């Protein structure tokens, strides 16, 4: 039914692939392959920031995948959230499968929060939108999942663009916290931090610290928080350090 509706809508509205711009396709076969084809894998930036959780990413952040993410995030192509959510859902499942001790309960997708000023400027919160799509995809596949947006920025941070890895870590240090009562919302589930892109890992490391600061359950202890992202730099997949 969804494919039929897109065909009809394409007669009225211009539709172009979010990855390469080809007409009459929200995401063409080649760009879908770039987003989904490799399958989720562990990603580790270098240098790896202290406290970074184990991260799984769906695809390398390059070419079509970069174009899709930027189209959704910066150019307001909100219809791409469903495709990006599918990629994130796979990374979430892969990350959750690596959880220690056979943890049970629904998957709780915890978005890394964007600055309020960035959300206002874009007119939407891209990470939370992708997380909702991922949770919907997981539920459709029979996996209990929901979004638990329990993190917030409690102080202003500088724009991360152009900052080195140490500068990003210093910029974000102590910037996130769990909202009042947020710890209770995570009880009985398997929390997985989610973001659209991991670059240096500073944001995920700070988010993991904030969760661990209020959690009493072992799954949130240092080194046991899990994370999933749509994309990460290619070298994050290639370099494997023991």
Features of this protein?
single chain, 242 residues, alpha/beta, Rossmann fold, six-stranded mixed sheet, two-stranded antiparallel sheet, globular
**Main sheet properties:** 6 strands, mixed
Order of helices and strands: HHEEHHEHHEEHEHEHEH
CATH architecture: 3-Layer(aba) Sandwich
Taking the alpha carbons of the first and last residues, their distance comes to: 47 Å
User: According to CATH, what is the topology?
Assistant: Rossmann fold
What's the total number of strands?
8
Overall, the morphology is globular
Residue stretches low in confidence (pLDDT < 50, at least 5 long) are: 1-13, 217-223
Overall average pLDDT:
83
Alpha plus pi helix count = 10
Q: Briefly, what CATH class? A: Alpha Beta
Rg is 18 Å
Query: How many domains comprise the coordinates?
Result: 1
Strand order of the largest sheet: 1-2-8-7-3-4
The helix content, as a percent range, equals 40-55%
Classify the beta-strand content into a percent band.
Answer: 15-25%
Sheet/helix structural class:
alpha/beta
